[in-house]
Request: fold
Amino acid sequence: MQIIELELLSDDLAGTERFYKKVLGLDPYMREDRTRIFFNIGFTKLIFRKSEDVKPVYHFAIDVPTNRFFDSHDFIKQHTDILPVNGDDISNFINWDARSFYFRDNNGNILECITRYPNREYYRDAYGYKCFVGISEIGLVTNNVPELADTFITEYGLPVFHRQPRADKFTVLGDDSGLFIITAREREWYPTTIKAKTYSTRVLYLDQGNIGHIAL
Reply:
């Protein structure tokens, strides 16, 4: 599964543009009447839509090629704070065969740069924003995790992620290329104490040649 378009809210589009330029090297490829800005992150179009005093906080992850993971870590660490994880700033997810680090953007969103070893992504050139593979995770918050997961499974045919057992307050759907992280409202976003809340989210994804659309 690939997340090909992701639209999120932001109270501060100008600040978002500055942050993504400074920390990730991204320039918007389009602006729309001061209400939306558009970025390309690999195969994903990331859109921020203007909100007023909503203070939305999301979690999403950007895939980085394995041979550029530490380059991305070192570059981003020079431009913003990396969130601590058990005395370190890199998480090793053995069950997922992945490694990642976390930081927050100007909106407070919890971003993750992750490399997934089963995908064997490799980038020959020097590190830069063009090496990003795409957005591979988006957190979806709900009052009833099993119910929302069942809806996605039955109506959209999405599988439970084989590397993560299903649970009542946390279920992951998809595969190593793209994941929906379904979490219970008020559950803390790892690796922070920030409580998950529901904000407007729109996703276009490609799964087995079919395009799906989710709007929450």
